[in-house]
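Assess this today:

___
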Amino acid sequence: MTLIMITTSIMVLMTISSGMFLMYKEYKTTKSRLKKVLKYNLFTFIPLLIGALVLLAPKITFAVSNGMAPTDGSGLGYIAAALSTGLATIGAGYAVGAVGASALGAVSEDPKILGKTLIFVGLAEGIAIYGLIVSILIISRL
C-alpha cells in the first residue's frame, strides 16, 4: 500500500515537472507528441490503480467481515455520487472549452453577439451543476 502511494506520488510529481520543463523551454508540441505523453501517463497510472485495488481488496473484505465497516451498501452510493460529479465536471470542462473558443472567435468578428455567446457558455457550465445536484440527491438518500 505504501509502495503504491509513493509511486503514484512520484508519477504525479514527474508529470508536473515534465509539464513545467516543457513550458519553460517553450517547447512546440504537436498533437502526436501530446498523444504520446498522454499514452505513457495512462499506461503507468492505470496499472498503479489496478494494483492499489488488488492490494486493498483483502483489507476491505476483512474489515467488512469483522463488522468494522457498514454492510448496508452505502459505499456504492458514495461511488455513484463521486462518479456523477466527476464525469459531469469532465463533460462541462470539455463543453466550456469548445464553446468558449467558438464564442471568442464569433465575438471577435461581431461584438454585438456577446450576450448570446455568454448564454451558450452558461449552458455548458450548467452540466457540472446538474452532476452536483444528482450527487447531492444520492448522498441525501444514504
